[in-house]
C-alpha cells in the first residue's frame, strides 16, 4: 500500500504542477498538520484516495473551514484496510493556541485512549504533528517533542510514527529515523512510502 504524507509546507510540485500519473498508485494520504485546508481538499479531489489528518499548531482555521472531503483523526484510532492508525495533533504549548498542549495535557489525551489501545492490541501507525522528544524534534522550546509519544512508541511498538512540525529546512534534520522497532518519518512537504 502506498501512502502519501504531507505536512507543514504545500508542495509546488504537487499543487502548481500536478501530474496525475505521479500519484495514481496512492492508496492513502495522511496530513501531519499545518497545511492549508484548500490544499488538503485539492489533494483529495485530484488523488482518488482517502485523506486523514491531525491538527498542527497553526490549524485554527480548521475550526471555521475544515478541509472538505477529508477525515480528522485527531484524538482517535481509525482502521484502514486492517491498519490501525492513532492520531494526536498539536504541539507543545509555547503561546496561546487551540492546538497547543502542555506535556501534562498531552499525557491526559493519551491516557483517555489507553483503555481502547490495550483492548484492541495497540496500533500500527502513530500520526502526530509534533515529534517525540529527542526523535526528530528541535532544540528550541517551541519545537520540542512530547515525552508521552516516546512512551507510546516504547509500549506499543508501532511500525511507523509520522510527524511534522520540525521543518527539514531548519537544518540538521533527518527525514527518516529508527527507534527500536518503529520507523519515524518527518512528513515535511511530502513523502511517499510503501507500507
How would you characterize this protein structure?
The structure is a single chain. The protein is an alpha/beta fold and 195 residues long. The chain has one domain: Metallo-dependent phosphatases (Purple Acid Phosphatase, chain A, domain 2, 4-Layer Sandwich). 22% of the residues lie in helices and 28% in strands. It has four helices and 13 strands. The protein has a six-stranded mixed sheet, covered by helices on one side. Strands 4-3-2-1-13 form a five-stranded mixed sheet, with helices on one face. The chain has a two-stranded parallel sheet with strand order 7-8. The longest helix is centred in the middle third of the chain and has 18 residues, at 103-120. The radius of gyration is 15 Å and the shape is globular. The protein starts with a strand and ends with a strand. The model has no long low-confidence stretch (mean pLDDT 95).
Amino acid at each position: 500500500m502506498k501512502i502519501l504524507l504531507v505536512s507543514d509546507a504545500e508542495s509546488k510540485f504537487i499543487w502548481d504542477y500536478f501530474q496525475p500519473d505521479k500519484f495514481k498508485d496512492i492508496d492513502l494520504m495522511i496530513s501531519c498538520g499545518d497545511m492549508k485546508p484548500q490544499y488538503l481538499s485539492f489533494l483529495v479531489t485530484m488523488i482518488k484516495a482517502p485523506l486523514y489528518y491531525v491538527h498542527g499548531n497553526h490549524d485554527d482555521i480548521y475550526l471555521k473551514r475544515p478541509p472538505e472531503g477529508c477525515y480528522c483523526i485527531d484524538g482517535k484510532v481509525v482502521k484502514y484496510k486492517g491498519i490501525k492508525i492513532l492520531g494526536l495533533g498539536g504541539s507543545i504549548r509555547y503561546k496561546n493556541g487551540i492546538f497547543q498542549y502542555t506535556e501534562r495535557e498531552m499525557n491526559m489525551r493519551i491516557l483517555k485512549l489507553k483503555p481502547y489501545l490495550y483492548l484492541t492490541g495497540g496500533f500500527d501507525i502513530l500520526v502526530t504533528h509534533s515529534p517525540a522528544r529527542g526523535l526528530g524534534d528541535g532544540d528550541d522550546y517551541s519545537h520540542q517533542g512530547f515525552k508521552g509519544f516516546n512512551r507510546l512508541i516504547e509500549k506499543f511498538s508501532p511500525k511507523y510514527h509520522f510527524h511534522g512540525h520540525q521543518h527539514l529546512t531548519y537544518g540538521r534534520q533527518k527525514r527518516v529515523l529508527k527507534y527500536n522497532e518503529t520507523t519515524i518519518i518527518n512528513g515535511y512537504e511530502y513523502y511517499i512510502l510503501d507500507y
